[in-house]
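Lab notebook, bench 4. Still working through the backlog of constructs that have no structural model yet. Next entry is a single chain of 397 residues. Request: give me the structure tokens for it.
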Amino acid sequence: MIPIEEARSYVMDRCAPLAAAATEVADALGLVTAVDVTAKESLPPFANTAMDGFAIRSADLSTIPTRLQIVETIAAGHSPTRALGHGEASRIMTGAPIPLGADAIVMVEKTSVDGDTVSIETQVEPGNHIRPAGDDVVEGDLVFPSGTELSAGHLGLLCSLGLHEIETYPRLRVGVISTGDELVDDGGALAPGQIRDSNRRTLLSLLSGDGFEPVDLGLIADDELAIETALVHGAQQCDAVITSGGVSMGDFDFVKAVLDRVGEMRWMQVAIKPAKPLAFGTIEGTPIFGLPGNPVSSMVSYELFARSGLRSMMGFPQPIRSVIQGVAAHPLARRADGKIHYARVLAKHEEGKTVVYPMSGQGSHMLASMARSNALAVLPDGEGCEAGGRVDVLLLN
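Model written out:
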């Protein structure tokens, strides 16, 4: 067996970021910037009002109340038509430009209107409720550095700055293949020896949830030519391919035979439980992840290896998920066996702490307990963790 650090380093060293590409802002959610982004204009581009009210000259408010002549109404999206003189005011709506001569806004609640005059009932200082040009961003500012993961807020700011295209690392197309005569996915009754294909749907869903573009390469029967065709085709049309099953020591199935022939693969036994077997390599430069066949092992292997490698290819500065500190609500028992154990747990935020509750059913085939979990407790080799003890936790969602 090899340490997880060695296996993951082997994967990460061969999962370099793809070349940057111009991306429409509308399609950039969750992508990572490949270059620094600078503002080509200021935001806001002009001084405007933060309130509905009246634009006034603060020098006119020597006494309170003061009555001023209303000279125009300025709506958002419209420009003032005249400058303010002594004793004048402009009715103004939120977001509208400040007229020349005005240096403050009086909110409408502090005024009363009588015909074409307004009574100002409060004293205000210059700049009151005025948003200066460039108050948020100044032209030439660094908006986001290279390596920024773009959230909804980032995209909104880019649109506010008039940017419709941005250089990012591209979203990965990741193919998923299931193979085996024992697998079915038609929803019909099971024949003797058959099981339903769950790994393909699970992996496609994990990929989608993590911001990749999943590609269903189908369920392929145990036919060497069909498997080779699917793998080679997948490597050509996708940025990476994931298979599950057939990677254990002593296994000999068609996937292993094909990958050894058409790819450059390393078959590993990693000192972890579940998900000990792992295959990784390339077909003509396209990364191929061979994950274990047991459903939970497949999911854990995806989390520890495939997800990290794929995020590296998408330019994430920290592609490996960070662990947090949790507290065990009940004992997390295990036996020493030379492996790190990843136990399924339910993590809850309680009294300022992350408290984890072990799930019953920790077998690598027990998908129901994985479905009810939201985290993995990381248990180093040894006797586990007592109730109340601190434990490293990987939050999965």
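Notes after review: The CA atoms of residues 41 and 308 lie 37 Å apart. The longest strand covers residues 340-350. Flag for follow-up if needed.
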